[in-house]
Specification:
Strand order of the largest sheet: 17-18-19-20-24-23-22-21
Shape: flat
Radius of gyration: 37 Å
Number of helices: 11
Helix content: 10-25%
Largest sheet: 8 strands, mixed
Distance between the termini: 65 Å
Structural class: alpha+beta
CATH superfamily of the largest domain: TolB, C-terminal domain
Number of strands: 41
Strand content: 25-35%
């Protein structure tokens, strides 16, 4: 709603700008609607008859993070790897082969937490899933009710397995250490409650007549490539939630897509599908990999896997199957590299060809209908947040109507060309989503009107927008957002006498000719309103200029000066804003422990709250060095203090204290009220030795903030206090922090680092573990040589 209390409807998401044109696409990276690419694709010709034998004969390939390759043996009963020493059988930590004793593996997939999953079947009565951990070197398996075809591992280590028409999930792992039962003690009913097991099967199989060919997924959903036994193919989408009983969502592949036999994620929102190499194409001219986008038509309730007209060329295609890569990069199986013949088929990365070639124009009706909720609402203005490069255009047509039944008969009315506005947004102090460049990007506005007739108002409860985008082939206009305002705030109706108001309404019988005086005057005054309303809105929202979290960055310096605070110019913007926000409290409590903690917390970006910077008043650390015979104060084994106490005691009797002077010190520490008149000075001096002294302890990341801490202490610390900074690599011991009246905190466990000879303290800062590779010994050998 603007300063005139005129509401608006905002369209800025993919769902809100949904349309039915294949020439337009939603750019997820830039969050805008633009013309689709129109490169000439070189796709192989493929049919079900020629592709299915290739699918049956294709074999998987896996690549770990160290470029070691895993594959199946010739008889598919074992997993082999190549780390530079030729292909060798894969073994677990107990030197057992990773193999199946009955049947053969049907797939090999890397994913999750360094896990390799391989479903297997003998084709009749034995079906299962083998799971191997590349780092921990264990293997385990479980049985499946039906023969598996393909598998995929999600981010929480669940193994999704698809059969011909069934979807299954397995989950679990072995115990971290071997467990042996003993008859003389009670044993748990279930030794390993999280053993790998068949966990779940989809309550509904794939839609009737469909068979699965491949499976993949992302953080949001699971995707299965299917076919109907003939030429038609679908991508079936399903939620990753096991509790979601909603049916599968089907997306049919377009007719121009060849028959494909493998599926993988190309990039967010895009899917690469692999077709076999075209028969007779010896020069491999048809070298492109097809890439699809899933489009859902909410009106027709129909999903389509639409072909993306952007080239993803391959250098060769030795096997029509994607490579399962630990890093998630899309790869395909290329021909053997002559320089490394022992590696067999070579994994190659698949990338988009960086060449821009767009459709030159496209028109589409937005599916989202704007509902004002008011019959005969007067639609006022549309603002576009867009980028329109030279040679490109964005034009609009609209239709207005009062009831859904009138939608089909209501004509589309072309609107004037959008006009660039020098403001980044008509909303006060808002930034443009498209960026601001004179005449090309930023805010564009259109006054909604009819092209001719005495009355050119657009009245109706509903408004539907048709977009017309035009490009030059190498560039495309980008539409980031649409804001439609209604009803019109008319200066003529609000400020002029009634005799100047519009007395007529739109009549189709007289829809041509010149505009009447009231209509001309209303649209003329609307030009002034379009300039004054944003200015009035900025004035009305001027309080944002004094709010530390909302004011523009260029205002921070003078806002800090107004509050009596000098902002360090080298500080990041977020820290400067918080300093301004807390300036009043810091000044109010300056010189106190609370004020100092707040100032340090601001300067260290929350270091005090995280326990990385701790202010301790030294009087809380008072200790006596007197020898108190008979009292043991050794706390080395105390679970709460761990030897942090300071004492010089020797255990001789029960209550003997040596040294009269130290006895008085001890008395001053523990019972100052019992001191006599002569001992008062000693007690006072003892307290003065620990008074007016502050220690600032820096731990972890707080050490890196030492410069900011010192600058803050110099500005905030009272002159009579003496302070010092202590650095430590260890957090406070539980039991000590409460004694110091500061909060304890749980330390973030640092990442493990490689063990270094004569440097690493085992059990304290380093661990010995395998890298997640097919052959950790070869990785360790390379590291030791380097």
């Amino acid at each position: 709603m603007d300063v005139n209390n005129t509401p608006y409807i905002l369209l800025r998401s993919e769902e809100e700008l949904e349309h039915g044109s294949s020439r337009l696409r939603w750019n997820r990276a830039q969050q805008c609607l633009s013309l689709a690419q129109n490169q000439t694709l070189r796709l192989p010709q493929s049919t079900a008859a020629s592709a299915m034998p290739e699918w049956l004969a294709s074999t998987p390939l896996a690549l770990d993070n160290f470029n070691q390759i895993g594959r199946l043996s010739d008889d598919a009963s074992q997993v082999e790897f190549n780390s530079g020493r030729g292909f060798l059988p894969l073994q677990d930590g107990e030197l057992r082969l990773v193999q199946t004793l009955d049947g053969g593996f049907t797939d090999l997939t890397l994913g999750g937490e360094s896990r390799l999953v391989a479903p297997f079947s003998n084709g009749t009565d034995t079906h299962g899933l083998l799971l191997f951990h590349l780092g921990r070197r264990w293997q385990t398996e479980c049985s499946l009710p039906v023969a598996p075809r393909r598998a995929w591992i999600d981010s929480v280590n669940r193994c999704w397995v698809v059969g011909a028409s069934e979807l299954m999930v397995c989950e679990g792992e072995p115990l971290p250490l071997p467990y042996k039962t003993q008859p003389q003690r009670f044993e748990p009913v279930t030794i390993n409650p999280r053993a790998l097991t068949f966990l779940w099967q989809a309550p509904q199989p794939l839609p009737t007549g469909l068979e699965a060919l491949a499976i993949c997924g992302d953080d949001a959903a699971l995707y299965i490539l299917c076919h109907d036994g003939a030429e038609q193919q679908w991508i079936v989408k399903r939620s990753l939630s096991l509790n979601d009983e909603s049916p599968f969502t089907l997306f049919s592949l377009e007719d121009e897509v060849p028959f494909v036999i493998d599926l993988s994620i190309a990039e967010p929102g895009r899917f690469a599908v692999m077709a076999p190499r075209q028969v007779g194409d010896d020069a491999f001219v048809q070298r492109d990999c097809a890439v699809l986008e899933l489009v859902w038509d909410s009106e027709a309730e129909l999903g389509t896997a639409r072909l993306v007209h952007e080239r993803y060329p391959m250098l060769s295609n030795a096997m029509p199957r994607f490579v399962s890569s630990a890093d998630g990069q899309l790869r395909y199986q290329a021909d053997v590299d002559p320089d490394y013949p022992s590696f067999g088929l070579r994994p190659r990365e698949l990338h988009r060809l960086r060449r821009q070639q767009y459709h030159r124009q496209a028109s589409t009706l937005l599916h989202h209908i704007l509902d004002s909720g008011q019959p005969d609402a007067l639609w006022h203005r549309i603002f576009l947040d867009a980028a329109i490069p030279p040679g490109c255009q964005i034009e609009l047509s609209v239709r207005v109507y009062n009831s859904p039944g009138q939608r089909g008969s209501a004509p589309l009315i072309d609107q004037p060309a959008p006009v660039w506005n020098p403001l980044p947004s008509e909303l006060p102090y808002a930034e443009s989503l498209a960026g601001q460049k004179h005449g090309e990007s930023g805010l564009f506005e259109i006054l909604l009107q009819r092209p001719e007739g005495p009355v050119r108002r657009l009245n109706g409860r509903y408004l539907q927008i048709q977009l017309h985008l035009k490009g030059n082939g190498h560039q495309s206009p980008n539409l980031h957002a649409v804001r439609a305002y209604y009803p019109r705030f008319s200066y003529q109706d609000a400020y002029l006498p009634e005799l100047f108001r519009q007395e007529l309404s739109f009549d189709e019988a007289t829809s041509s000719g010149a505009a009447n005086g009231a209509d001309t005057r209303e649209r003329l005054l609307a030009a002034f309103e379009s300039i004054l309303s944003p200015i009035e809105g900025r004035v009305a929202a001027a309080d944002r200029l004094t709010h530390p979290q909302a004011t523009p960055p260029e205002n921070l310096a003078w806002l800090g000066e107004v509050l009596g605070t000098q902002l360090p110019p080298h500080w990041p913007e977020k820290r400067q804003r918080r300093l301004i926000q807390e300036a009043g409290l810091i000044q109010q409590y300056k010189g106190t422990l609370g004020g100092l903690n707040l100032a340090l917390d601001v300067a260290t970006d929350g270091g005090v709250q995280r326990g990385e910077v701790v202010v301790v008043e030294n009087f809380r650390l008072r200790r006596t060095m007197a020898t108190i015979l008979g009292v043991s104060m050794d706390d080395a084994d105390h679970p709460l203090t761990l030897g942090t106490g300071m004492s010089g005691n020797s255990l001789v009797g029960e209550s003997l204290i040596l040294s009269e002077k130290d006895a008085r010190t001890f008395l001053a520490l523990f019972s100052p009220e019992l001191a006599d008149k002569d001992e008062t000075e000693i007690v006072t001096k003892f307290f003065e030795d620990y008074a007016h002294q502050i220690s600032i302890l820096l731990h972890g990341r707080g050490i890196q903030r030492r410069a900011q801490v010192e600058q803050t202490l110099e500005a905030q610390m009272p002159a009579h206090l003496v302070w010092r900074i202590l650095e430590t690599d260890h957090p406070f011991v539980l039991g000590i922090a409460p004694l110091l009246a500061v909060d304890t905190f749980i330390e973030t466990t640092p990442d493990y680092r490689r063990v270094a000879l004569n440097e690493t303290w085992l059990g304290k800062e380093g661990v010995i573990k395998n890298p997640a590779a097919f052959s950790p010994r070869d990785i360790n050998a390379e590291m030791s040589q380097s």
